[in-house]
Fold this protein.
Amino acid sequence: MKYLVADPDEALGPGLRADLLDTWVAATNAGGAVGYTAPAPVGKIAENLDGALGRVAAGLDLLGVLHDGERYVGMGMLVSRGSDLQAHWRTVLRVMVHPDSQGTGAGRMLMEGLRGSAVDLGLEQLQLTIRDGLGLEKFYGPLGYRVVGRHPRAVRVAPDDYRDEIMLVLDL
């Protein structure tokens, strides 16, 4: 398994897109908190992925990926807000690993790669949000992220199932 920064010129390439779409759909269907709930709405995910890859191709955001020697099996983004006042930090977004590669340390490798990319960019801080109720704090805490806030009932995963959104920050 290897962490790579996707080349902006190749961000819209068909192989990368197909593998990342497959990962996103599989992660959603496995119950991952990656923006959607199962069953995965493939068309909506594809639109979201295309928008994200467009931002990478335009040089606005950074895409970190995991490659297992055959295909891309994980992704995470460092997303800019586009403001000079916030140029010293990025939002970590769309962190996911294909379910077939989970439990192998791939998620940790991805997060460490994104941290290294952030340091290379000269950033001072990373921010991310997680969905409450999945125990994700146990994953991010040992990586140095700390909880700095909570938005009650920010995520509705079903008509009668609301979850808090928890904000975490990592100082670099």
About this structure: The mean pLDDT is 95.
